[in-house]
Amino acid sequence: MDLTVTVSTHEDAGLVELTGALDFASAPYLRHVVFGLFDDGHHHVTIDVSQLSLLDAGAIRALLYLHTRAEQLGGGLHAAGATGTVLTALEITGVAKTLRAYDELDWPVAERDRRAVRLDGTPVAHGLWPVEATELLNRLHQLAPDDPDRARLRDDIIERCLPAAYRFARRFHSTTDSLNDLLQVAALGLIKAVDGFDATRGVEFGTYATPTVTGELKRHFRDRNAGVRLPRRLQELRLAANRARDDLTQTLGHTPTAPELAAHLDVDTEQILEMIGSTGTSRPLSLDLPVAGTEDETTLGDTVGAEDPQLDLVEDRTTLQALIARLPKREQRILSLRFYGNRSQSEIAQEVGLSQMHVSRLLRHSLDYLHRRLTEQ
Fold first, then answer.
1. Within a domain: residue 193?
2. Domains in the chain, number
3. How many CB atoms lie within 10 A of CB 74?
4. CB–CB of 305/317 below 8 Å?
5. Which residues of 117-126 are buried (b: 16+ CB within 10 A; e: fewer)?
6. Boundary of a domain, candidates 95, 121, 147
7. Count of beta carbons in the 10 Å neighbourhood of residue 282
């Protein structure tokens, strides 16, 4: 691997000096180094990229992720000293200002202890796990199922590996998530890794435990934290599109369009548009959210339709209309003048040529009839 990494620390700050090529293959090593600084309380990190000869889209994406994570922890991260093709790559992808690539490195040389980080062919995340975990698991699987020492040894392995599992949980933690919940999920993933590890395959425990624990954490976010469950095909398409977008941006020199993404992923453009439309829909909006474009304090809840109270009266109105049609024409007219024309009994009496007393008796007779028939039905 053509990458050399040295680390220096001072109080709550850390300096990571990179030499060589930082690409998609070596970016996970950088993430491990920076997360190690975060775990140790160094939340203000400077990445010295002045000695890099190559920086690809996958590495830039890793830098942006680390930048966001540092801000969530109350610190910051920036890439200083970018020149040549490295600076061009940051400018083309539009992240040069975000990562403060134009800033000069201001870390004094005298305060650089430059501890070299060993990067070999073994995935760096394995270094989080106790070196004796694999050997202990080999001993565990050699014990008979009814051996009384089996449960004790299993508990010992879990206790030794819990700090490493908790470090993964803290990396997934943000201000909107419960750390205690994530620690429990990580512990559950660790137990699954210990019970599911096959010692006969000749691999290190970290090779199996790392994806098991992180997978359990990702499943927790997907299944429990999302208020709206998106179809799995949209979730997978979104991940693939995010990876392809970085590569296409650097290749095409502009942000890829939906047809370009569809052609690159060999899917229909309609699927890409559906995926884009689903972005940001994993959490429901609050009904107290103010409505944009309104001058008053209208909320989203105010725009949601409610049940019409007149809806329950539809059946009664239809029945009443049929019953009124059965009354004599004179009584229908009196009811119409009284309740629709808002006339007094004296005015009705003058119009229909009857006495007020007679109009009163006809109204009472009509209303009693309608009330009795409606009650019966």
1. yes
2. 4
3. 10
4. no
5. bebeeeebbb
6. 121
7. 15
Query: Which residues fall within 8 angstroms of residue 96, CB to CB, at 6 or more apart?
Result: 82, 87, 90, 102
CA distance 225 to 288: 20
Q: Is position 300 within any domain?
A: no
Residues 215 and 261 grouped into a single domain: no
Tokens of 258: 């939906």
Is the pTM higher than 0.85? no
Same domain, 163 and 110: no
Q: How far apart are CA 4 and CA 248, in angstroms?
A: 28
CA–CA gap between residue 18 and residue 117 (Å, rounded): 10
Element (H, E) at 374: helix 356-376
Tokens 């006969």 -> residue: 200
3-state secondary structure of 253: coil
Q: In tens digits, what is the pLDDT along the chain, a chain of 377 residues?
A: 578 888 998 888 999 999 888 887 778 788 878 888 887 788 999 999 998 988 988 889 889 988 988 888 889 999 998 988 899 999 998 899 999 988 888 888 877 888 877 664 433 444 568 878 888 898 898 888 888 899 999 999 999 999 888 888 877 775 456 778 888 999 999 999 999 988 777 777 887 888 899 888 888 876 665 566 677 788 788 878 877 887 787 778 788 888 998 998 999 998 888 888 776 555 566 777 777 766 677 887 777 777 777 787 788 888 888 888 888 999 989 988 888 888 898 998 888 888 999 989 999 999 898 888 888 76
